[in-house]
Write a structure and sequence with these properties.
The chain has 253 residues and is an alpha+beta fold. The protein is 25% helix and 33% strand. The chain contains seven helices and eleven strands. The chain is elongated. 28% of the residues are buried.
Amino acid sequence: MQDADQAVDGPLAESAGELSLHQRILGDIENRILSGEWQPGFRIPFEVALAKQYKCSRMTVNKALTQLAKTGLIERRRKSGSYVTQPRAQSAVLEIRDIKLEVQSLGLAYHFKLAAKSQRRSSAEDRQRLGLDVASPVLDIRCTHFAGSRPFCVEHRLINLTAVPDAAAETFEEEAPGQWLLNRVPWSAAEHTIRAVSADDVVATSLGIPIGTACLMVERRTWSNGANVTHVHLIYPGEQHSLVASFTPSQPK
């Protein structure tokens, strides 16, 4: 965990035109957090240091930090200081959302890294995962999605190449598999299963967490006009992710 008792230089000391001091402090700190410069767990400079840097009262600094705490970007701890919080993501259970949009909704930069990609004839396990009755060529893909510089989730996906033959020639180096499928193959039906799992050595290494850490796994299978398209496991660190379902009561008959 980093420390920042010292006075702040760089963008925090720049002129902000007509912005009030409160708005300057608020915007500068927010930008450093959202850009990833100040990572979760980073201790923000103490009020007295910020007041000296901005040549303002501690009350003005306190007002800005209080507003940041209300938005959830920082956590204020009595007698300890203010710290950047870990963003907590939410996914809609009944929707298929692009992971890139999930990350960007947190105000963080998104990127992904392809870990492995291979094509083969489907095994019995593959056919069970995809819901196939007969053998079919499949594409096996593993990648890690990032929010800022931190791993966001691990993806393990199977694509049925009989249903999506164009996927065989795709490198998936510029566009993530899920995003590629959403943009090219309109899904007509989907099935979600959500359960808790413990991080094995592969998941733990990919997410930068200890082996055995509780994780949340979303298992998804999708179809397009009756054809089995893809099956994916999305694994998130459990304490950093939650699932939300929105629904309305059925109308009386």
